[in-house]
Amino acid sequence: MPILTKPDWQDLGGGIKRRITADGEKLMQVEVHFQPGAEGYTHTHPHEQTTFVVYGGGTYTIEDRAYEMRTGDIILVPGGLPHGFLAMQGEETLLLDTFSPPREDFRKK
């Protein structure tokens, strides 16, 4: 497995950017940076996902249930469930997402 050193950020707009930090055969790890108040809108995908709050926090919604998350919290999102994240106001947030299997749609072509 190659070591990725400071991979480039991809600007997603709306105060959100991401970069792939590990890309394996069976899993992928991605850093997602949110400006204060930025929103990762509700979406679905078939992949299992964990999200770890490196710093900052916000509201993570899975289906119709909201979870307040802060630094050090982790959540598991089963594949196929609608989910999204709203970063808290007043400070930046960094999330570390892990997907299994890897997100082909995130890989550069």
Explain what this protein looks like in three dimensions.
The chain is mainly β. The protein has one domain: Jelly Rolls, CATH 2.60.120. Helix content is 0%, strand content 56%. It has no helices and 10 strands. The protein has strands spanning 10-13, 16-23, 28-34, 39-43, 48-55, 57-62, 65-70, 74-77, 83-87, 93-100. The model has no long low-confidence stretch (mean pLDDT 94).
Throw out a few tags for this protein:
mainly beta; six-stranded antiparallel beta sheet; four-stranded antiparallel beta sheet
Brief sketch in words of this structure:
The protein is mainly β. The chain is built from no helices and 10 strands.
How are the SSEs placed, and which strands pair?
Blueprint: E1 10-13, E2 16-23, E3 28-34, E4 39-43, E5 48-55, E6 57-62, E7 65-70, E8 74-77, E9 83-87, E10 93-100
Antiparallel strand pairs: 1-2, 2-3, 3-10, 4-9, 5-8, 5-10, 6-7, 6-9
CATH architecture: Sandwich
Order of helices and strands: EEEEEEEEEE
Whole-number mean pLDDT: 94
Structural class by helix and strand composition = mainly beta
Broad shape = globular
Largest sheet: 6 strands, antiparallel
Low-confidence stretches: none
